[in-house]
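Fold sample X.
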Amino acid sequence: MPVLLYPLARSARLQAHRRFPPYVYRRILDPHVVRVQKIRAWAALVASSLILVVYGTETDLWEAQQQLMLRIAGTPWLLLLTAPAVILVLFRLAPPSARPDMRSNLRPAVRSALQYIAAFTAAPLLFAVVAFVGESLESYWFAPFITFVPLALVLWMVFFVLFASATLVRTVFGTSEVHAALPALLTGVLVWELAAVNLVIAGMPPGPPFIQVCALIGGPASVSAVAWWEIDRLRTRHGVTLRG
């Protein structure tokens, strides 16, 4: 099996870059903003780990793993539901003369998002089918041969999604072509939605009440602050306004 992983990964990477070319999805990246984003991400990771180590129980560690999987599985769907509302607001803010270009640039972003979500959804569905078939035929000697090809297809799809994510998640599906500030806006909204979903499913983080509130609000608030700073720098450094 390890011998087959490399050709599967190489083929999936080639197809992911062919389907979603990294150079096509342009985004204005401010090096100062990128540096602050990395610092914020590492600080959030350290703070979350410290809270789990000091106040967490074995159940809290298990819930943290569940929340991570929930973010991975739910983020594309939340983005698919959130993006239309944010884009509609931008369309309302933009002058009528800018809307035709925004509308034409929106189509490739929507197409990329739908294709990515289709691949993202197909991977677990294929795995469930392979597991069901393997369990149904486990008493037969030829079962491994029948499930081998579908399992290889599942691995290929997982690699494809991972390599596509490296391009599409960083550029938020190329939505910067619609408006340069749209990726930052989507990030600022999406992080609060994920926090609300985590609160409903897992409840408050462990620790004293003050630590719980800081852990619950600090993450999305800091992400929103960095996103708003990015929008402000787009305005002051590149002349990008929400109404432009």
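Fold sample Y, listed below.
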Amino acid sequence: MNDEPDLGRLARTIGDPTRIQMLALLMEGRALTAKELAYGSGIKPATATAHLKQLLDDRLLDLTTQGRHKYFRLASPEVARLIESLMVFAPQRKRVAPGNRNDAICTARFCYDHLAGKLGTQLTEVLLARGWLDNDDGIFTVSAQGEIWFQTFGIDTQALAKNRRQFAYACLDWSERRDHLAGALGATLAKRLIEIGWLTRSKHSRVVSITPEGRTGLNAQFGIDLHHE
């Protein structure tokens, strides 16, 4: 007899406030230590061990050891997609951080390894509007014209398509309630924008800062003009 997915176990694992906060902290795409995850979740490091073990057992996290240090990260882009989807449906709660911090994360942030927020959704809309991407029920493909543009922008889409990872798909953005570009193409586009100096990542945060050169470049290349403090 074939095994069935144990949805109840998964629900219990991610339904715990501490464990879901740990997963949310890892949505910035970086690996974090147990101590960082504990403090970020508001618990003592000694308490984090059991939570992290359950997340590992349920294949939601991966563990890497470097010397004396252990680093945790999301097990796959699919886990990140699951957490982002939960954020879409989660009820809103009163802000506990300063307003400009919340505005910044809604303007431009990382969703695991691709861009989200206003920047991510607007970039996706421009790529679709210009015919460089086509959307087939949430699966993106690159047009012939798009291949030329991506190549000039320093991205080899044909090489990316051979990657084992899903090439390009729509990820529903929790703050914008619109789609942004995910998958190997979305991750590579985000990486490229950092390489050319248009974006910088914030330390221990999902927030993305747009550099002065980036504001000029995004406006000239895509007609995007975003501001946050």
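Sample Y note: The chain is about 50% helix and 20% strand.
Also: Residues 60 and 79 are 6 Å apart (CA to CA).
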